[in-house]
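Hello,

Our lab assistant flagged a job as stuck in the queue for most of the afternoon. It eventually completed. Since we weren't sure the result was trustworthy after the delay, we are filing this so someone can double-check. Below is the sequence as submitted and the structure that was eventually returned. Let us know if re-running is recommended.
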Amino acid sequence: MHEELDRLPTESVRPGLADLDQRPGAELVHLLLAAERDAQAALARAEPQIAAAAEAIAGRMGQGGRLFYLGAGTPGRLAVLDAAELGPTFSVPPGVVVPLLAGGPAAITRAVEGAEDDAATGAADLQAHQPERRDAVVGITASGRTPYVIGGLDHARSVGALAVAVVNNPDTAAAACADHAIEVLTGPEIIAGSTRLTAGTTQKIVLNTLSTAVMIRLGKTYGAWMVDLDATNSKLRRRALRIVRTVTGADEAVAERTLAEANGRVKVAIVALLAGVSPGDAARRLAGSGGRVRAALAAAPE
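-- returned structure --
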């Protein structure tokens, strides 16, 4: 097992960097940024895998399912970040996107040594939420061999939930136990084994891409507009008003009044103004259209 870890590309040393610690600061920055740019090629090669996984996750969540993230260390913290941002951006209710981090909440800010080495805990943490067939589970592990993640993915498949693995090495155990494997092959890091760097960057991009694509497929946007945002502060309230004005062409006073009558719900205000109906009728149209603005606009008048 340890010998297998030693052979992983992400644990290898890049050639020509034996004097890395003696390089000037400007050269270090150049090397690190060049490595991040090179990571884009690895992401491009994984694009079909990301697209297939996004479509599969949207299919499960479209049936009312939840999305779980499983990770340890950097991948787990990135998962927590992605899950936290989906609420205000897309009005995702609490408990719909659930990040599970090896070591629990304490591991967000401080490493919990050994937490990632327990497959049974990964399975138990997921089981505590009683996953079912309409749910999707995304496990993120640069090495592709993290026991916590593999335990969770194994349990996901055992109950019929969709299992997706995001890894940075080829032919890994995590990929083997997933329905969809996203292999972003970033290779050796500038600092050997420090996968919080290039591998971590690609993991963040993959999670951003997956969750955003899924939200779009679920009708959380109208065109490129963020019409399902939760306007919880002054910046977001101004954004909500700007979206309503831009989409409908209404002047500020009309848009502001309609948005207030819609209790701040951007979708409702947009449908009300574009369809020429009351906010109450707009809300009913949206409820009957799965929350999709285009379908609500196309719905026959009551």
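-- support follow-up --
The delay was a queue issue, not a problem with the job. The result is valid. Residues 25-45 form the longest helix (21 residues). The radius of gyration is 22 Å.
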